[in-house]
Amino acid sequence: MRKLSILLSLFVLASMILAACGGAAPATEAPQATDEPATAEPTEAAPEPEGTEAPTTGGPTSKDPTTFVSVSFGEPDLLDPALDYETAGGEVLQNVYETLVTYSGNELSVFEPLLAESYEVSEDGMTYSFQLQQGVKFHDGADMTASDVVYSFVRGMLQGGGSSPQFLIIEPFYGVGATDISEVVHTAQANGIEAVADNLSEEELGAAGSDSVLYDDVEAMKAVDPAVLTAVCEDLYSRFEADDAAGTVSMTLALPWAPFISTIAGYWSSVMDQDWTAAQGGWDGSCETWQDFYAMQPENNPIYDTTNGTGPFMLDHWTPGEEIVLVRNDNYWREPARLERVVLQQVDEWSTRFAMMQAGDADYVVVPPENWSQMDALVGETCNWDAAAVDYVCEVTDESQPLRLTLGRSSNTRTDIFFNFNVSNADNSNTYLGSGQLDGNGIPADFFTDVHVRKAFNYCFDWDTYIADIFQGEAIQSKGLIIEDMPGWNEDNPVYSFDLAKCEEEFKLADLDKDGVPAGEDPEGDIWTTGFRLSGTYNQGNTTRQTLVEMLSLNINTVNELFIMESVGLPWPAFLRSVNARLAPIFFVGWHEDIHDPHNWYVPYLVTFYAQRQSIPAEIQNTFIPLINAGVLESDPEARNEIYRELNQLVYDAAPGIIGVLATSHGHMPRYVKGIKYNQNYSGFYYYTMYEE
How far apart are CA 443 and CA 609, in angstroms? Predict the structure, then answer.
């Protein structure tokens, strides 16, 4: 995600990001994608369960094998596949909508066609051609066409904006470092309409990046010369070719982009029905009107809570704060799913979720790591990850116990702590800042622009206690933004450690009143003698993140009793709004990767998704960008590693946040649940393959 993650990690707690990144994360883990062309036929029937799950010959059975009940906390931001970017919505969308390609089994780097029957890549690596499945229909009965595919890609990129996942798609179509269609419009304004068809240069991107007046500004976009806006839209359309009669689609990129297939396997590349979307009040595909839909927010989106996909499940209803119910699509173009209904219930309290599992009223519940032991006592089957087999190998240990335990797979999700360099407080009403002043009762909006404050917070974080007390030792401190098996992960990367003396030292070096005198020596008073009060926000129901806020708050208060950070839990959608609106001075949330590549960690953290919510200044971002771009263009793994080693040092020096820990899987599921795809790139469960005994 990839996106914001509402939970902590797939199977480790369940994930989201975005970041999405929202709803319950799965007890499944997600694979990745392959960048090789695929020609395999998708299976024509709901597949048999993957893996080596041991047969259940005794023990508990499902109360209702036709229905899967998943109980978590949080709910989607919205149900528009092009714009939602968090895992609560992602779980719904990946079961209701479909993409051209999808993940193959549990692999993180292998794909297979889905809505495409086959695809191939040109010799220069820039043109992708897809032969579509025949006879695919949307839930309303309309035929899926090649034109719908093109419309879906174009709509996503044109609507874009900083809250969407479309920066993932823009970059391969417009050049390394491109993040939003506003940069293309800016280039057309500055260099003339004829420049639109050119790939964006690094200089143009630097002038038109996220600090552009057009970025995320709907009214400013509408005020652009209509001829420029039309030209941008027409140019984007020209990069695609659709033949409805032949059922073919081709798309031409700006440059060879190795992770392109990985990128379009995500639900943000889902195929939508153009006519249906327009009938709901969405964009109709006209190049004269796209600007009216740019950077659309959930509350203004006409398909906020309605869906019409091609997938194995259909949305029955969404009752906010209570549940989402999916029903089987009996007219699905493949064999219908085995499950008839999926019920996604929202229950914040762990004790209630646990009681539901014990009573058989839930088939899956999100388990915070601190509560693993309660579930472990009910385990009758243990499955350990086998990296060679890319699957879990299971053994029944107690026939009378109801649960299956999965252990040992490294996570591709992590919870981190983010600092906002310039908190939004235009009307002085942002309560997360307290008084909004450095007076002991609040903080100024630019509190975290002082690097010594950011470093102090890092030194006051206790990774060892976090790992021991929350994860029972089943986690490691991250060696940078990336995860273990990637270029850039080095054991000697610089990392912060828990050190209260260094925390105090950094606070005393801060200069919040900007008088040139460090706080520890300032006779006029500064942060050390004045103190501060602020709010640390997290998504309500995520007790692990609540504990993180409280741990950090306690350590900071130990250093100086005048330092107070209050813990504020918000419902997932409200939490997202506060983060997206840059209202939160410090927020605790996760990231679930979209693509199994370092680029998908460095870019959102340092340039796009989180960087924008943190208001990281352009001068800091610009120190990262050359290395990020060099890293993604470098094909040699060792050379890439050296580039990222240098980048890791810059991140350490800037300390834009606190990088958390990577846990291994520790997931619980009733033994009667079968057919789970343990693919870490899913935003939760993929229900098509699942069934209950």
Answer: 24
